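seq as requested:
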Amino acid sequence: MIENLDNRKNRLIKDLKSIKFKPILISNHPILKIKEEMVNKVYQDENDVRIKCFEFDDDFINILINESFDKIFIQSLFHTESLINFFEDKFVDYEHINECYYEIKTNEKDIKDTFIHHFEVGGAMKILETEEESIELSEKLYNVICENTNSDLYLYFTPGIWNDYFFGVAWDVTYIIVNLTTRKLWVMCFTDTD
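struct tokens:
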């Protein structure tokens, strides 16, 4: 029997809420150099780029083995404590989360191309001057997330305004990146509207 989508989402939310996502301190992580470069070249200030990283264990892997990496999976993930608390000071719009469009990329070229497009769109006031700059910044970001290993990545992308950090404009983006190889979950949110 095929599981109803609402039932599947409710089951996944329950399963994912039981997972312990351990926050990783990135205060000395190479991602901060990439963030600084993004802010200098694309955004107005450091609050326009928020990045967090979480480690996951076998329980999360077991869920992943039994599920497909689809829209329902990522919508359910947005209900976990880690993502709810990503913006401690922001209102989370669950109704919008359930309606958000999520694009999923799984191969290296597609993920890098997604980043390249992101950097080419730029922010409200800045844009990278050349395609080469976008490619270089994309490559750096990808390598840092992979930790320079041949990683198995799943990137989820949404322009959805799932909390009031965003303003619903072209440069509002959320990436959730699951790195199965390093067992890390990256959450990256970008905006550029004051």
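The mean pLDDT is 85.
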